[in-house]
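Our preliminary data section would be incomplete without showing what the modeling component actually yields. Below, a chain of 167 amino acids is followed by its predicted structure, encoded as tokens that our downstream tools consume directly.
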Amino acid sequence: MQRRPTLSLNEWAVLGLLAEQPRHGYDIAAELEPGSEVGEVWRLPRALVYRAIGRLESLGLVEPEGTEPGRGGPPRTVHGATPEGAERFRAWLDVPVEHLRDLRSSFLLKLVLARRAGVDTTELVRAQRARLAGQLAALAEPPPPGDAVALWRHHSARAAEEFLAAL
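Predicted structure:
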């Protein structure tokens, strides 16, 4: 049985943007800068965007689709998701995250990319609530005084539970 390689969150973000529409690395980097919709959730410098494109291409998940003139430099290669890449990205959107700590990164990135792709997230949110139910229940009771870490985890769990319920 062949194991599929695991993608980093950087690679999922780049793949999601390329599944949305073909573009070159400079455009992807702009989508992942502070102040942009996706960049408010996940930021990635240009060098890591190009590294992610290279890895995704080596895995057959994206491919070059042409070039565009560069601004005062060499032509820019436009990449797009392959059918396999688009399928893997779409499947990734449906999988809830494993841990409460991943809500701020992976889960929010999934929500933003899914909305941009026109994907209904109702089932993802339902599955996410179910996946985290045990962790949330375990952190429901306030901890004893003096344990700052446990207090932080308790309040974070309550905030996560309210966030998921509001979705």
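The chain has a mean pLDDT of 94. Residues 147 and 153 are 10 Å apart (CA to CA). Preliminary results of this kind motivate Aim 1 of the renewal.
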